[in-house]
């Protein structure tokens, strides 16, 4: 029985003389949306041209023939760097290497290749390069419609399979998932290059990039910016500190989080509450930190140089922004100065600075360290007595005390913990009991260990974390006692 293949891909192999690769000959899309941007060093470009002249093997390039508004173009699925190297040489941007191998050819055939740029060659030598040197091209046909999702996906699949040997890193893989609404949102907001689908060409700038990312001090590592925004979005989806590991980022790009749907259209996706809040937070972060006095020469915030610190600033500021606080631009300066001072403490040898030592020991990206860092930083912020008002002031304990108690008790209801420890299987770890006794910031009470009515002080030492159930049952017993 003959194998029935359903892919509409046809492959035509052709041999093209190098002049066919000239940018004046065909319209090449060298960086389609699923491609990353990589740049060969000159040395590698020269070595490729040397291979052509010496007749050494050069692997074929893979092109996708597309028709965009009746114009035929070639999308480069594989061979971006080889085609660029040929074009750069023909455009006179570098010279051939002055190598032993090329000099031998010059001597034997009375030519003058070695060490020369294209313009420096004789007409005969130019013709030899343009017409006698060849490169094999594999042309994919049958997926020529640039607006067809199915065609795009097939092209991406071919790209992906070709890259297996080179092993894309996880973020590069995520970057090429061009049909995911999450990917498209993240690339639009955080990438420094873009793709114009209307004109069907790649652009070296991205007008939709959020200005916050120009403040991030990661050098030129744009894929890290995508990862950072993905982590912000994970935090918004969880509505607070959450798992932000690489695995979770990949699942996010695959729309395998919460109610995300890989087929959701962009407008619906962007009107989601978590996406709108992420956007709102990017604005706030930009507004707060654009005015710091600690800028690099490239106008990046000096202290935005490591991810776990930025993520904790994010969880802290989003809590102030969306939680029950009076927080507005009047508070930006003190937040900015707090962030700067906190970073300076991290940079100094923090001997004896327990908060910073603990913070630095919790640099992992799983949920527990992310939450622990959040509360350590929140506690340090409240120690500075910021001019931020918690709007619910019905409580006996001050906000600063509550933060300190919550941090000290590690977000665990002390009575739940007691009960969970008693009920724990002998072969289970105590951390299991702790996890089960965890409470959310929005769902606990600061309880007096020695009751207020019995003269117990309203201090951090006399306070403990209680879940609402335990606090309520406690109050019932107390009122029975006082009756
Ligand atoms: Zn409890």
UniProtKB/TrEMBL annotation:
Q: Which residues cross the membrane?
A: none
What is an example of a GO molecular function annotated in this UniProt entry? endonuclease activity
Record-annotated GmrSD restriction endonucleases N-terminal domain positions: 24-230
Q: Return the Gene3D superfamilies for the record.
A: 1.10.30.50
**InterPro entries (UniProt xref):** GmrSD_N, HNH_nuc, ParB/Sulfiredoxin_sf
CDD domains with a match to the protein in the record: HNHc (cd00085)
Keywords noted in UniProt: Endonuclease, Hydrolase, Nuclease
Q: What's the name of the protein? A: HNH endonuclease family protein
Give the source species.
Halobium salinum
């Amino acid at each position: 029985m003959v194998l029935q293949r359903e892919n509409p891909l046809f492959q035509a192999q052709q041999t093209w003389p190098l002049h066919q690769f000239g940018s004046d000959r065909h319209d090449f899309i060298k960086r389609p949306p699923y491609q990353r941007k990589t740049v060969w060093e000159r040395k590698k470009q020269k070595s490729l041209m040397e291979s052509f002249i010496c007749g050494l093997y050069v692997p074929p390039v893979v092109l996708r023939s597309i028709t965009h508004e009746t114009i035929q173009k070639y999308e480069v699925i594989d061979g971006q760097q080889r085609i660029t190297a040929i074009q750069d040489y023909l455009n006179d941007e570098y010279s051939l290497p002055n190598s032993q191998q090329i000099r031998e050819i010059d001597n034997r055939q009375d030519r003058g290749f070695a060490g020369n740029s294209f313009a420096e060659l004789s007409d005969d030598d130019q013709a030899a390069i343009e017409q006698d040197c060849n490169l094999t091209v594999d042309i994919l046909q049958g997926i020529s419609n640039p607006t067809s999702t199915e065609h795009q996906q097939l092209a991406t699949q071919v790209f992906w399979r070709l890259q297996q040997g080179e092993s894309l890193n996880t973020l590069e893989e995520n970057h090429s998932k061009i049909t995911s609404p999450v990917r498209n949102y993240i690339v639009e907001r955080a990438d420094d290059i873009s793709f114009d689908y209307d004109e069907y060409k790649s652009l070296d700038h991205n007008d939709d990039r959020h200005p916050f990312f120009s403040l991030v001090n990661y050098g030129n590592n744009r894929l890290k910016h995508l990862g950072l925004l993905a982590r912000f979005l994970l935090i918004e989806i969880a509505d607070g500190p959450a798992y932000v590991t690489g695995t979770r980022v990949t699942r996010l790009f695959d729309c395998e989080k919460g109610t995300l749907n890989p087929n959701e259209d962009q407008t619906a996706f962007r009107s989601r509450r978590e996406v709108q809040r992420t956007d709102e937070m990017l604005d706030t972060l930009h507004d707060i930190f654009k005015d710091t006095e600690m800028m690099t020469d490239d106008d990046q915030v000096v202290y935005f140089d490591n991810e776990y610190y930025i993520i904790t600033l994010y969880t802290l500021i989003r809590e102030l922004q969306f939680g029950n606080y009076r927080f507005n631009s009047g508070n930006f300066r003190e937040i900015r100065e707090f962030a700067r001072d906190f970073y300076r403490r991290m940079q100094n040898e923090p001997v004896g600075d327990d908060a910073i030592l603990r913070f630095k020991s919790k640099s992992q990206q799983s949920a527990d360290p992310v939450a622990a860092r959040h509360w350590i930083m929140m506690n340090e912020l409240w120690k500075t007595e910021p001019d931020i008002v918690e709007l619910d002031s019905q409580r006996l304990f001050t906000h600063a005390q509550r933060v300190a108690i919550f941090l000290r008790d590690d977000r665990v209801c002390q009575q739940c913990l007691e009960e969970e420890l008693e009920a724990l299987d002998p072969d289970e770890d105590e951390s299991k009991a702790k996890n089960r006794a965890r409470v959310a910031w929005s769902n606990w009470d600061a309880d007096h260990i020695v009751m207020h009515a019995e003269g117990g002080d309203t201090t951090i030492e006399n306070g403990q974390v209680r879940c609402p159930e335990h606090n309520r049952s406690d109050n019932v017993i107390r009122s029975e006692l006082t009756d």
